Structure formats: C-alpha cells, structure tokens
Amino acid sequence: MRTYELKGVKRADVGKKATKAVRKAQGVPCALYGNGENINFCVTAADVRKLIYTPNVYLVLLEVDGKSYKAIIKELQFAPVSERLLHIDFLAVAEDKPVTVKLPVKLEGLAEGVRAGGKLSQEMRLLKVKGLYTDIPNEIVVDVTNLGLGKRIQVADLSIDKLTFEDSKDAMVARVKMTRAAAAAAAAN
C-alpha cells in the first residue's frame, strides 16, 4: 500500500460556527477514530487534493500537533451542489486488526474472446477487500488472457493471499461481450 504524509492541527472548537470558520479559511475539518481515541483536527484543502482525487488507496501517516498516527480514509463528505470537500473521517490502523478498503481493479492481457471479435467490458472498477493493512496491495490485477467469447470473471474466481473479498461472490468483474460482427461470423459458419 502506498503511503501519504499529512500534517494537521488539532481543533479546540468543534461546533458549527468553528467548522464554518475552518472551511472559510480553505481548511478541511477531519476526525480520526480508532485505537481508543477520537481526535478532531483540520488540514488544508491543498494538502489533501492528491490524496482524494485519485483511484489509489493510501496509508496516511498523520502528524497532529507532534503526535504520529497511521490511518486510512474511511469516509469523505462533499457538498451536494458545489462538490466541495466538507469533511474527512480517518480510521486509525493497527498491526493486528484487519481493515476493509476498496481497491482499484486493473485488467491485464489480451483476451481470447477479443481476438475472436468480442469486446472486453470491465464491470467493476473497485473491489472491497478485508485484511491487515500490511498485506493490502496497491491494486488488484486480473489476468484476462484466457477469457473466451461470452465468458466472464466473477469475484468468486479471484483470490489473493491473506485477503478476503467483501463483494458478492456472484458479482461480475469483467466479461467479453459478443459483438454483432462476431455473432454474424458465428452464424455464417
């Protein structure tokens, strides 16, 4: 898992008025949960831009008023109209406690069905996995070279050591659709 360093300042006031003042000063209110303590702090919007607007999952090395924490992003809240970032919830991670994260899916290889005239379709861009944060990879790589025309790969077909998939086993990750040209060629033979 990639790491991202972030510095924050602890918030003394956590009410509605104080939160509006933080947002007006181009800050983002944040909360850190887990490991028995809850910490309210704020970061600048520019500091979290590369952390949020990416498909990658990061282990965030937080430094709040001189204390260091390891965390992952648990939830992001955006304004419904302007889509401005309103709040970030971080979850503190421990060496022995599993966490659940969504990882990006990367398809690799040229499918047999594509060679036969089909079209490869990626149905899921993210998969939810559970495991220790030290065992979580940057992405889930799915090999599609043996995927024939009209065939599919489901979550049940995937496995990664020390991780469990939280998505439905029947959920489709990728498939090769039959195109009209391929169907016409198959009907002509």
Please state the structural category.
alpha+beta
Query: DSSP helix count?
Result: 4
Q: What is the third-level CATH name, the topology of the largest domain?
A: Ribosomal Protein L25, Chain P
- The H/E string reads EHEEHEEEEHEEEEEEH
Measured on Cα atoms, how large is the radius of gyration?
22 Å
User: Any idea what the CATH architecture of the largest domain is?
Assistant: Beta Barrel
How many domains in all?
2
Output the keywords.
six-stranded mixed beta barrel, alpha+beta, 189 residues, four-stranded mixed sheet, 2 domains, RNA Polymerase Alpha Subunit, Chain A, domain 2, Ribosomal Protein L25, Chain P
Account of the protein in words:
The chain has 189 residues and is α+β, with helices and mostly antiparallel strands. It has two domains: 92 residues, Ribosomal Protein L25, Chain P, CATH 2.40.240.10; 89 residues, Beta Complex (RNA Polymerase Alpha Subunit, Chain A, domain 2), CATH 2.170.120. Helices cover 16% and strands 44% of the residues. It has a six-stranded mixed beta barrel. Strands 10-7-9-12 form a four-stranded mixed β-sheet, with no helix packed on it. A three-stranded antiparallel β-sheet has the order 8-13-11, with no helix packed on it.
